[in-house]
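Problem 12. The chain below contains 566 residues. Write out its predicted structure in token notation.
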Amino acid sequence: MKRIKEIKIKNFKAFQAEQIFAIDGKNVLVYGNNGAGKSSLFWALYTILQSSTKSIPEVQKYFEIFDEGNRSTHQSLKNVFVNENEDSYVKITSIDDDAVETTYTISHGTINTANPEIQELNLASDFINYKLLHNFYRGSHKQEVNLWPVFERDIFSLLTEGTQNWLEDIIKAETKDVPRTNGRIVSRGPRNIYEKKLSDLNDKIDTLLQEIETNANVFIKEHFYKGDDVIKLKLTFAKKFNFDLIKKKIWEEGKASLRHENLKIKLEVEIKEGENWKKISRVQSFLNEAQLTRIAISIRIGALRSRVQGTAFKILVLDDMLISLDMSNRMDIVRIILNKENKESLRYFDTFQKIILTHDKAFFNLIRRNTDDENWKYYKFLKDESKNEAPTIKEDPSELQKAQKELSEGEFEAVGNRLRRVAEDLLVQFDDPEMKKLDKEFEGLSKKLEKAMNKIITRSHQQFKQKFISDLEIEKLKKIKEDYNADGTLDQADKDKITATKQKVFDYLIELNETNDRKERLIKNTKEILDRIMNPASHGGGNPLYRAELVAAIESIKELKAYLNE
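Solution.
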């Protein structure tokens, strides 16, 4: 397996001086206000991956100095406030299981991404932002939704056919222009051959849409509606490629509107009403924002699942894609992406190195509480919008890491406050691992500890029942207390089953005593330590809060975290 170990960005979009993200192969969560550089990170990653399919001049144009009078520089992504002679680049360093590192760079002078590793990463990765989802249903309320522009811009380019993506395959000779000789359109014979190629291409797109539709409907039913029939969607290639359309050279610059008028992927939705399905064609007029976003995400995931699955190097980058949803609907989607319910059908997401970007502080904190610093890196991007200055970017360590730093700096009381918050977050996550109790009433630490203990006891009881369900009749099972080997009413098979059950009971009792002792000690110690270090009387006046006690508290919280995560 490969992961991105480090990202370096200099003078690219919002970034100026070199910014290094030492992510060490972990997932990434970023909070930032508007204009702070979140989207710049999104596009830096997107651009370096896409560069693996482009020519050197096509990549160099992103690093030209912008000149309003020179159209060839209008695609420049170089920061507009830097000097002309300053370098601009994006670099990523990968690391594999053998700790072998490789660095890839795009800049005006260095481009080394035409490489199988980056090409694989590009083919397998996905990028989703709020604009992309909004594009699914932004049409006029008078019109049916046409998803051709979305597929052309955001989906076909991410699907692969061998070493070529679908968009490249669609644009190649068959749809760039019809066959011509000396500028004149060919005669009927060659035209028939050409039209057969167009028909095959249309059929190929039809087949892809059916696959995406199937994947999307399975996804929306299982993961948004708990297996119930509520919504189903249909994708139809309603307006297709034909000879008369292609002869207008539809891929030339300025012809996008012509393509979007004459090519159509129609989206239809059906809603279950009682035993019947009601068709809705103009979905943007009759469905709410949450329903529309769920449909859009299901189609995007349906397309994602239509791609190559086997690669071990891929990233999933999400930039405020849930901006228009309330917190409850957002968490439905985050539960899916993080696979909080550990569903087999969502293990696919576990293989991605995830990068989540948001401007919503509450959303950032909620995801953070339900992830951990062993697998995630956390950053804060901040920018004063009144100044033309680069954003301030800081790694935001976990609460436990902050407590350790405060301890080293002698901020003892701050350590105590922080450890209490860490314990509360751990217990909330343990009580609600699937993030479904967003609106519950406030509970104090003692109540949370009590609930955790009760849950542990209940879990032990359930494990006991599962472990000792026996196929023996109850009267035979009762003989476990007697000298059953001398009982002539039992055959040897029954005696063997009773012996095996007896041995399992003894083994389990030993294990239960060992683990229960640990459980009770952890819960009891956590409560006592936190009560003591949070009690001003214990460290005020002549009773200072000693460093050794805080060190013990930190180790106790670490042990509690390790146990609750088992």
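Discussion. Residues 539-543 have pLDDT under 50 and may be disordered. Students who got a different answer should revisit the alignment rule from Section 12.3.
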